[in-house]
Here is the input.
Amino acid sequence: MLEHLFELNSKSKDIAVLIDPDKVLIEDLESLIVSINSTKAKFIFVGGSLVHGVGVDECINVIKSYTSLPVILFPGSGLQVSASADALLFLSLISGRNSEFLIGHQVVSAPYIKRQGLESIATGYILVDGGKETTASYVTNTNPIPAEKPQIGAATALAGEMLGMKLIYLDAGSGAIKPISKEFIAAVRNEVALPIIVGGGIKTIQNIERAFSAGANLVVIGTAIENDADFLNTIKHL
Here is the structure.
């Protein structure tokens, strides 16, 4: 089922919907997942910067009872690891200089992930300034890469590729005022051959199309759906 994630390439243009267990009620999940099933979304991501693991298992189990889409963890810390997921993005915050999010949480969680047989996907995680401080930058105590410095993002992504990462995730953060620019995404696309995931500040079809045209292979939608569930209707025909 999960080979699709590894098959992302420069021609892939897929959608993932991010569900934050802190921001959704369990009783609302059925209708949300049914709506997601009617779109062209390929994956459901579960996670958030403040989730402490409470409710993650229940959230994933409910999601999986209503969909056959792969459910992939997007963990904000080692406490958010759940064996109920199909896989997890094994994130390393390569844009920051906080060792806890570069390798610390990974060391603590790696043995548990292995024992559970949970598939992990090495992901170079890069925070990009989206116009305001986000929970991700606050919790990780790291500065995002300035939006007007795409060459730094490209060099950071290249370092991640050379270190053996399988994916690059460019994130403006939940609730970002503005999405990552075409210029920034294109600079990274021109530097690395890895699949690129883009998220944060994606609020319109135009945002999605710009990300794809710049070289994104997977666009993640989260806050837009939290604020307006009807936004799912706009991505049905992508």
In short: The two ends are 22 Å apart (CA to CA).
